[in-house]
Amino acid sequence: MNGIFSKGPAGMAGPAWHARRIAPIAVLAVLVSLAFWGSDYLLSIMILIMCYMAIGQMWNLLGGYAGLVSLGQQSFIGLGGYTLAKITQVYHLPVILAFVLAAVISVLFALLISIPVFKMKGVYFTIGTWIVAECLALFFSTWSFSNYAQGYTITATYAFSTAQIYLVALAVGVGALIVVMAVLRSRLGLALMAMRDNAAASEVRGVEQYRTKLKCFLISAAVTGIAGAALYLNQAFIQPANAFGISWTVSMVFIAIIGGMGTVEGPIIGAVIFVLLRQALYNFPGISMMLLGLIAIAIIMIAPRGIMGIIRRKTQFEIFPVRRHPSA
Asked: Is residue 305 part of a domain?
């Protein structure tokens, strides 16, 4: 397992490798500049893309790399949103504190529920995480501290311009990407990919599966909680039914599968496609989810490994390579 990250086919830096290094920096510069010249409508679309990219990356980290197929990630979105609402609307404290506490509370809750749900395997884990989220929705609907089912209007949103909220969402989206890259290039990421490729062999080689999955679960919870705060900073209103609704995780699954599970680029592609499709289907609220499902089924039939899977198979192209290769 020892080695270096390859810079090219033979470990040597080439023009394609340099282009791959420069392109993300150029794209980031364009995205930052968008805050100064983009229209409010364009910025609103980009806010959604960045936030959905972040939550898609975190679900992909769990499902695509750790094999933890969760249907309860909306728990952390709801906790992040309610943390933002309480900190800014009730206690009138800075928004930045809300983002920090959203991560902390999400991690503590993930640590708490990991005790029972990690004893479940396969589909039982999936159902268990979904039940936890549903219990949270019910609890928050009957809890006076969370204002029952009435929720909160987050007036702190109106203190920010669309461009400022976009910069927050951009920081969350890029931050999620950096976290994923950092994890996958670390020993933890190597263990995750070994587990994904062959769980039994990785355990024989010394990978502690419980601890590895727990670390991945906590990281995903923290970033998803922050993304939840960013989403509700943009929406400006939160209620338990929506905050802890299954539709959040359905969106994450759609993004990861369509873009390509087990790839860093997949959730980026998936988030762009999801947000644009949702905007196109905005005038069909009654059947929009059904149409999205049909589109997902069609793409899965054509490309079982997602769009990025097709690109990799035909071109061997990666923007964010994470696998290690033996040194020359």
From this structure: no
Count of structural domains, the chain: 1
Q: Which of 74-83, 264-273, 275-284, 310-319 has the lowest mean pLDDT?
A: 310-319
Q: What's the pLDDT score for residue 126?
A: 93
Q: Evaluate whether residue 256 is within a structural domain.
A: no
Integer Cα distance of 10 and 26 in angstroms: 26
Residue with the two structure tokens 């197929």: 69
Does 227 map to a domain?
yes
Q: Has residue 17 been placed in a domain? A: no
Q: How far is CA 169 from CA 66, 91, 132, in A?
A: 26, 23, 27
d(CA 173, CA 171) in angstroms, rounded, equals 6
Exposure b/e, 270-291, CB count within 10 A at least 16 = b = bbbbbbebbeebeeeeeeebee
Alpha helices in the chain (DSSP H): 15-37, 40-60, 74-85, 95-117, 123-141, 162-184, 187-197, 199-204, 209-235, 240-243, 247-259, 266-280, 288-302, 306-315
The C-alpha atoms of residue 197 and residue 192 are separated, in whole angstroms, by 9
pLDDT at 6: 42
CA distance 156 to 225: 18
Q: How far apart are CA 114 and CA 93, in angstroms?
A: 30
Q: Phi/psi of residue 4, each to 5°?
A: -125, 160
Range of the domain at 172: 39-245
Q: For 262, list phi and psi in degrees, rounded to 5.
A: 75, 20
